[in-house]
Specification:
By secondary structure, the protein is α+β, with helices and mostly antiparallel strands. Helices cover 31% and strands 31% of the residues.
Length: 134
């Protein structure tokens, strides 16, 4: 296996702290979900941002292979769920739109993408992920 990229983020203060890149290229203030503070994010938003970008890039690869050049938009919703007291899990909903394609064809491409995307591979069997063409 050949490593293509590696990055490191460091956090101090947990959900009420700061996360920053070891190389100083990114620094983010972190707050608990639902906080109404300016210029902060939370781990769920960061996961959704990464997953949506990765999934759309994997979809672009699939579209190139199938000679489809229609633009696509991917919306990822990450939900923090409490199963029981102090037992938390994530759930993910992926909605994808591919310009000019029928919903059935778009759904097939999205499901194929789910087998290729590294985030999807990492979550498969670990958290509930739903995929829907819109």
């Amino acid at each position: 296996m050949k490593e293509l990229y590696s990055t490191t983020m460091i956090n101090t203060g947990g959900r009420s702290g700061t996360s920053y890149a070891e190389d100083q290229s990114l620094s983010l203030k972190i707050a608990p979900p639902g906080s109404k503070l300016d210029n902060v994010t939370n781990p769920e938003q960061l996961f959704a941002a990464g997953y949506s970008a990765c999934f759309n890039s994997a979809l672009a690869l699939i579209k190139r292979q199938k000679k489809i050049d229609n633009s696509s938009t991917i919306k990822v919703t990450v939900r923090l769920m409490e199963q029981a007291s102090f037992d938390y899990i994530l759930a993910v909903d992926i909605e994808g739109h591919i310009e000019g394609l029928a919903l059935e064809e778009a759904q097939e491409l999205l499901e194929l993408t789910h087998t290729v995307c590294p985030y999807s591979k990492a979550t498969m069997g670990n958290i509930n992920v739903t995929i829907k063409a819109i």
